[in-house]
Write a structure and sequence with these properties.
The protein is of the alpha+beta class. Helix content is about 40%, strand content about 20%. The structure holds zinc ion.
C-alpha cells in the first residue's frame, strides 16, 4: 500500500469561504466541549474522598465512566438535537474533531505530558473529510459534501491507479489549501543496500558537505527577508489589537512567514533530490537539532531547519528507492576519515589536517566522509531490513528529477566542487 499526500491550492468563493470558517468554529466548539467533559471527569477524581471538594473539584458520581471516544461520538447526535447549529457541519467532519481530541489525549497518556488544550478563536485551522463515495477531484473542481464544487488548481494530476481517500481543507495565511490523501494498491519491495554511499554533514557555515566533496553554501532566506519581517512586525505592534487595521497587518506578517516557509522547503527538496542524483545511499547524523537551536546561533539554526531537511531527505530517498539512514553523530568532526585517528579542532579551524597519516581536506567534507564510513559500517553490521521504497515504474516524482544531475540553485552559483 502506497500512500501519498498532494497539496493543492483551492479558491472558494465568498459564501463557501464563510461556510468553511463557520464549520471550523463549530468543530472548535465541539472539540472544546469534549475536552471540558474530560477535564471535569479528571478533576472529580483528583480529590481525596474524605476531603472537602466544594471549592475546586466537580463532584461526579463514582461509577461514572471516563468520557471515552465512543461515548462522546455517540453523544453527538443527541447534541445535534439540542444545538441545531451542529448539523450544519457534515457529520463525519464533526466526528473528526472529537477524534482529533482523543488522538491528542492518547498521545498525552503515552508521553506523560502535553495535556490537550482548549482552542481559542482561530486556532482550529483545518477540516478533515475522512471518506468519499466517489472521486471528489476533477480537473477543475473539488467536490465536498454540503458545500459543492470548489475551484482547484490541479497543478499536477493525481497519478493513475491512485484513489482519493481523505481530503483535509486548510487555511494558511488567508489562503485555502486541500491536502489530498491518495492511495495505490501496490506492494513495495524491500530494498537491499546497494550502490554509491554518500555521507552528509550539515552546518551553518556550509549548508551541507558531502563525502564526495560537494559543498553547498547556506541559503539566507531568513536573513534577506528579516528586515522586511522586522518592519512588518513593528507596524503590527503599533496597531490597536482586534482592530481592522491590526487584522490587515497580521495577514501581511503571516503571508511573509508563508513565503519564507515555501522558499526554504523548495530549497530543501532541490538539495535532497541532488543528493539522490549523486548516490544510492544517504547517511546523515542523528542529531537533535532542537538542542543546538537553544544556543547563541539559535535563530540561524532554526532558519536552516535541519530537522525538516532530514525529514525531506528521508522522504525523497523513500520515494526514489534509495537508502537513507542515520548514524551516531558523536565526534564526527574530530575524527580522521582515512585512518580513524582523533584530530582535535575547534570551530575556527576549517581545514582537516591529520598529523597521523597526512590526509588533508576541508573540515566539513572530512566529517561527511566520517559519516559515510559509519554508515557503511552500520549497514554491514545491522542490515537495513524493513526499509521500504517505492521504486516501481511510472510513479510520481521519479521521471522528472532523474534528468538533472545537480540541483539548480535559486540565485547565482551556490554549488561548487572543491578538490
Ligand atoms: Zn589520518
Amino acid at each position: 500500500m502506497l500512500t501519498l499526500n498532494y497539496r493543492y491550492r483551492i479558491y472558494p468563493d465568498a459564501t463557501q469561504e464563510q461556510a468553511l470558517i463557520e464549520w471550523m468554529e463549530i468543530c472548535r466548539s465541539a472539540y472544546n466541549y469534549a475536552l471540558r467533559e474530560i477535564k471535569d471527569w479528571c478533576d472529580s477524581r483528583k480529590c481525596l474522598i474524605d476531603r472537602c471538594s466544594l471549592e475546586k473539584e466537580y463532584i461526579l458520581t463514582a461509577d461514572l465512566k471516563f468520557p471515552n471516544e465512543v461515548y462522546q461520538l455517540n453523544n453527538l447526535p443527541l447534541a445535534k438535537k439540542k444545538f441545531p447549529k451542529l448539523s450544519e457541519v457534515p457529520s463525519q467532519v464533526l466526528q473528526q474533531a472529537v477524534k482529533q481530541l482523543h488522538r491528542g489525549w492518547e498521545y498525552f497518556q503515552e508521553r506523560g505530558f502535553g495535556f490537550p488544550r482548549f482552542k481559542k478563536y482561530g486556532q482550529f485551522k483545518s477540516l478533515l473529510f475522512p471518506q468519499f463515495k466517489k472521486n471528489p477531484v476533477t480537473n477543475f473542481h473539488i467536490k465536498l459534501p454540503k458545500i459543492g464544487a470548489i475551484p482547484i488548481n490541479l497543478h499536477r494530476p493525481i497519478p493513475l491507479g491512485f484513489v482519493v481517500k481523505q481530503v483535509r481543507i486548510m487555511r494558511k495565511a488567508d489562503k485555502w489549501y486541500a491536502s489530498v490523501n491518495i492511495q495505490c494498491d501496490v506492494s513495495i519491495p524491500d530494498l537491499m543496500p546497494h550502490g554509491h554511499p554518500i555521507g552528509v554533514d550539515v552546518g551553518l557555515s556550509k549548508f551541507l558537505a558531502t563525502s564526495d566533496g560537494v559543498l553547498v553554501k547556506p541559503p539566507k532566506f531568513f536573513k534577506s527577508l528579516q528586515g522586511k519581517l522586522k518592519l512588518l512586525q513593528r507596524r503590527l505592534s503599533r496597531k490597536q489589537k482586534r482592530s481592522k487595521n491590526y487584522e490587515k497587518q497580521r495577514i501581511k506578517v503571516a503571508r511573509l512567514h508563508h513565503t519564507i516557509d515555501h522558499t526554504r522547503k523548495d530549497f530543501h527538496f532541490k538539495q535532497a533530490h541532488a543528493l539522490c542524483d549523486a548516490g544510492d545511499m544517504v547517511f546523515m547524523e542523528d542529531l537533535d537539532y532542537r538542542i543546538s537551536a537553544k544556543g547563541m546561533l539559535g535563530k540561524h539554526m532554526l532558519d536552516a531547519a535541519f530537522g525538516q531537511f532530514r525529514t525531506i531527505v528521508k522522504y525523497v530517498c523513500w520515494k526514489r528507492g534509495k537508502i537513507c539512514a542515520e548514524v551516531d553523530a558523536r565526534g564526527t568532526s574530530q575524527e580522521c576519515p582515512e585512518c580513524g585517528a582523533e584530530v582535535r579542532k575547534d570551530l575556527s579551524i576549517r581545514i582537516h589536517n591529520c598529523p597521523n597519516c597526512g590526509f588533508q581536506t576541508d573540515r566539513d567534507i572530512a566529517s561527511g566522509q566520517v559519516i559515510r564510513n559509519r554508515g557503511i559500517a552500520l549497514i554491514s553490521t545491522a542490515g537495513l531490513a524493513g526499509i521500504e521504497s517505492a521504486c516501481a515504474d511510472g510513479l510520481p516524482g521519479i521521471e522528472v528529477t532523474q534528468s538533472r544531475p545537480v540541483s539548480k540553485p535559486r540565485k547565482g552559483k551556490t554549488r561548487k566542487t572543491s578538490k
